[in-house]
């Protein structure tokens, strides 16, 4: 379904009604019942209590021994003003803290902000997919896939940091997409046939830098996206100049536009990142705050300590799963399990729709092959292919370089939007046949496949919500032996 094949009024209505409907569905799946169970799940034990002390102290305070039971019972003041060492920047916990400040310190309050963040991923992915495919149908499928995906739902119903990271990373990529429209037109309109223009007015790159600063202020893995997008911007500028007939397109993209793009991207990211530490700067009690009279030196000392910690995170964990295992999803992280007297089982796990996930592997390999063929034949790579490859490189590839580090499958929530985009872009390419008969067959085949993937997502949805199922139905989900959670 494309806008060209529809009446203009119908296209306008659907262009806002479809993402609105998907967002409402996503919100219901993420918010209804989010206050249960009334216990701290998995790493909520760290982030929720840190969020509460951030909100009250401006930095993460220290809690006494075994504070969870009292906290869950409503005694949320068992902290001291001694700064606590924490492994992640403060923004994700500030987001959780806003929910607690507005809706109380119970489980609904500590989870609602993450639920809303996870909901926002849906319309954002819709507009990105719409831009890449030009199809209302495929954009709707993309939004629906993430709206009901069990990994996306689970990560929205628990107060962790990774949904916020995923939102800000995807937002940065969206801003880069918006930048390309105006930038390509300016390069083509330039009268400088040797190097092309040096473009300073690129507000969407500034916005992308700010979004990446937000991502990095949630988790340092946002820096991977900053590095990859920075490189991708230079590469895309080079390709655009080559297509426009610029003579020295490589030198111009790297030597002239590259430094400008760096200035537009990196300083805003740094400024936003530092702004997230305002509470730490404005108070005296934060960890390492007194390590230097210069607050920036003190923050640098703190960051060196955190970096040393991350370099040595290799402790064993029941649900530890190196990145190579994420492709088959061999050891999904269990967040919650409920077993009832009649044998019913309910669990919430970091397990994506498996058919979607495995289809995405095929789609990403297809993108990589297309890029390899283009490079081998000295042709410019497709901007869409480059976008998808950059997304995977920013969110998944870095973890492959750290095989000994302790990591978990829920980190893959940042990969999921790009996995979905790869699938719908592959579908769009298969449907774009010149021959009418082949095009009709391709449309029917891809539509059937996408509907089947959506149905599998619905089947696995209870693993995202924690809904209790009869034992036989629960076991029907256990496609791999390691999924016996």
From TrEMBL:
Its EC number is 2.4.1.-. Residues 22-234 form the ArnT-like N-terminal domain. The keyword Membrane applies. Pfam families: PMT (PF02366), PMT_4TMC (PF16192). The chain crosses the membrane at residues 12-32, 108-129, 136-153, 159-178, 199-217, 223-239, 260-282, 355-373, 385-402, 408-428, 440-463. Keywords: Cell membrane, Glycosyltransferase, Membrane, Transferase, Transmembrane, Transmembrane helix. It is a multi-pass membrane protein. Pathway: Protein modification; protein glycosylation. It comes from the Bacteria. One of its GO terms (molecular function) is dolichyl-phosphate-mannose-protein mannosyltransferase activity. Residues 296-483 form the Protein O-mannosyl-transferase C-terminal four TM domain. GO terms for cellular component: endomembrane system; plasma membrane. It is found in: Cell membrane; Endomembrane system. It is an enzyme of class 2 (transferase). Belongs to the glycosyltransferase 39 family. PANTHER family: DOLICHYL-PHOSPHATE-MANNOSE--PROTEIN MANNOSYLTRANSFERASE, PROTEIN O-MANNOSYL-TRANSFERASE 2. Protein O-mannosyltransferase that catalyzes the transfer of a single mannose residue from a polyprenol phospho-mannosyl lipidic donor to the hydroxyl group of selected serine and threonine residues in acceptor proteins. This is Polyprenol-phosphate-mannose--protein mannosyltransferase. It comes from Candidatus Microbacterium stercoravium.
